[in-house]
Amino acid sequence: MNGIQKTLKVGDQLRGVSYSYQIERVLGAGTFGITYKAYAVTQGQKELSGELGSFHAEVTMRATVAIKEFFMRDYNTRNPYTGEVNRVDENSVIANYRRRFHTEAKNLSSLNHPNIIKVMEVFEANGTVYMVMPFIDGSNLDQYVEEHTALEESQVLEYATLLSSALDYMHGRGMLHLDIKPENVMVTKNGKPILVDFGLSQTYNQAGSADRSTKITAVTPGYSPNEQMNQRNFTPTLDIYALAATMYKMLTGVKPPMACTLIEEEDYVDFYNLLRATGTSEQTIKALRKAMSFYPQDRAQTIELFLKSLGRKLPPLMEARTEKLEDLASVGETISSLMQEEEEEQTPSIWARLHLSIWLPLLLGLISFVIVLLVVRGCKPTSEPDAAMPEIPATYGVKDSLIELEYNNQQIAYVYTGIVDAQTKLPNGEGKAQLKGTEYIYEGVFAQGLLPAEGVIKMGDDGVFEGKIKALHADSGKYTAKNGMYFIGEFDNQGQPKRSGQWYNADGSKIKAHSR
Q: 505 vs 161, 479, 481, 492, CA distance in Å?
C-alpha cells in the first residue's frame, strides 16, 4: 500500500456542525481511525479597551482541537484529490463499524466528568465520521512512567482515585471502558489524569449483557483479564482488573504479567517480589492481588470496594464544565500525543515463561471466539440430496482471497485458500484460512463457512490444536505446544480444559494440570 494516500493533507478543511476545522498534522493512526491536530476558527464579539475608552469588535478566534476520523486501515481507501473515503455498502462490515464509531462518539459526549475526555461534536464528512475533542497539553501515562522509571505510591494512589472516580461515573451509567492501560490515560502538565480512547467501550444492562450487538473485541496483554476475549458477561470487574494492572505498571515501571499466567497463588511470586522491592505497602499489594485475580468472582466487585481495599474513598464528584470552542481558544491547552494508538505485541520472553496449562484456556478461548464469527447464521448440515442450500451470511464480501463474514451481528475477515462454492463464493470444501491480523490458521473442510466436526488450528509459535469441535468450541482432542508439551482431554462449553484431562511433558510423563 506504499504511495497510497491514507490521511487527510495539511491544510484540508472540514465543516462540522458548529465549526469549521483546518488540519495541521497527523498525530497518530490505528486500526480503526486516524487522529489529527487541527484548528477551529470562529467569529465572535470581544471588548477592546484602551487608555481613553473601549468598544466591541468582531474578532476571529482560533482554537486547537484533536479530531479523530473513522478510517479502517486495512479496508478503507481515500481519493487523493478530494479527501473522500471510499463508499461502502450500508450492510457491509465497514458500515457497521462506522455506525458504531458514531454511536460511541454520541455516548462519550454525554459523559461529563473532569477525568474523562470530552467530545465537543461529531459529524459526517468525506464519506466517513469525525469526532472533535479538546487538545490538552501533556503526555500519556506510559510515557510519563518511562520518564520517571516508576512513581511514588502516594502519587499512584492519587491517580488511581481520580481514575476510579471516572470509572465509577461510567459504571453508574451502564458503560465499561474495556481498554484501561497507561497509553489510554493522559497526564496534563498540571498532573491531572484524563481517560481517553473509548473505541472498545461497551454499554450493558443490569443482567450484564451487551446493549449493542456490534462489538469490537480486543485485548491488551498484561492489562486485559483472561475472560475479556469471550465478552459474554459485562461487569465492572473487567475495568477493575485493568486499573489494578495499570497501577502495577506505575509502581514498578514494568508491564504486568499476562492474566493467563496468574491462576494459582504460586504464580504471583514475582508479582509480590517486584512490588515489595519498590517499597509498596502491603495493603496496596493485597488490594492489587485481589483485583488481578484470575477468576472475576474473586475480585473487588465495584470500584468503591476496590478503593476501600486501598484505604481510599471516592472523591466528591464535581462534573466538568461543558467545553466550548471559545474556552479552548482562551485557555490554549494542547496535547501532543492525544489518542495516539499503539498496538501491543506479545513478546517471546513472556510466552517462554508461561505454564502451558495456564495459557491454553486463553488460546482456545480466542480460537473459539474468532471461529464462531466464521460460521454462517442458521446453517445446518443435511444428508438430504435435494435439500435447499444452507443459509449464507446476511453480509459477506469476497475480494480476491479475502473473505468477510457476518455472524450474529459480529464480523470477521480472513484470507482463504481452497475450494469455494461457485454460487456463494464462500469456502465450501477442503481449505485453510488465516484470520486477518493474527497468526492463527484453520485447516479442514469448510461448509459454507460452517466449522466441521473435526479440525486443526495452527497458532504460529504457540502450538497446534487437533480434535473434535462441538457447539463451535473445542470438545475433545490434543493441544501440542512448540516445546513438545501437550494436553489431552475434554474441554468445557467455553473451550477450557476440564479437570479430567491431563498434561504431559514432551517425553510423555504426566505433569500437574492447573485448569479448574
A: 46, 12, 10, 23
pLDDT confidence of 341, banded at 50, 70, 90? very low
Q: Are strands 502-504 and 510-511 parallel, antiparallel or unpaired?
A: antiparallel
CA separation for the pair 8, 4 (Å, rounded):
12
Determine phi and psi for 465, rounding to 5 degrees: -115, 135
Q: Which three cell numbers stand for residue 321?
A: 464544565
Q: What's the rounded Cα separation, in Å, for the pair 432 and 358?
A: 28
**Which amino acid type is present at position 484?**
G
206 backbone dihedrals φ, ψ, rounded to 5° = -65, -25
- N- to C-terminal Cα separation, the chain: 46
Half-sphere exposure of 160 (CA within 13 A, CB side): 34
Domains of the chain (ranges; CATH) run: 13-134 (3.30.200.20), 138-319 (1.10.510.10), 355-511 (no CATH)
SS3 for 263-291 is CCHHHHHHHHHHHHHCCCCHHHHHHHHHH
Helices (H), 226-322: 237-252, 269-277, 282-291, 303-309
Grid cell 484540508 — which residue? 12
Q: Which residues contact 5 (CB under 8 A, 6 or more apart)?
A: 78, 80
Q: At what angle do helices 269-277 and 237-252 cross, to 10 degrees?
A: 50
**pLDDT over threshold 50, residue 31:** yes
Q: Strand order of the sheet with strand 454-458?
A: 396-399, 402-407, 410-420, 427-435, 441-445, 454-458, 464-470, 473-480, 486-490, 502-504, 510-511
Rg (CA), the chain: 25
At 368, give phi and psi (nearest 5°): -65, -30
Which residues lie below 8 Å from residue 112, measured CB to CB, with a gap of 6+?
A: 118, 319, 320, 322
Predicted TM-score of the model (pTM): 0.61
Q: Residue 399: beta bridge partners?
A: 402
- Tell me which residue has cell 457497521: 96
Mean pLDDT of the residues in the chain: 76
User: C-alpha grid cell for residue 503?
Assistant: 498434561
DSSP string, 103-154: HHHHHHHT---TTBPPP-EEEEETTEEEEEEE--SEEEHHHHHHHHSS--HH
Q: Is the dihedral of CA 352, 500, 470, 443 positive or negative?
A: positive
Grid cell, residue 16, equals 462540522
* 3-state DSSP of 401-456: CEEEEEECCEEEEEEEEEEECCCCCCEEEEEEEEECCCCCEEEEECECCECCCEEE
186 exposure class (CB count in 10 Å sphere: 0-12, 13-18, 19+): buried
Please tell me which residue, 316 or 208, carries the higher pLDDT value. 316
**423-455: pLDDT as tens digits:** 667 777 777 777 666 677 778 776 666 655 678
Kind and range of the H or E run holding 21: strand 20-29
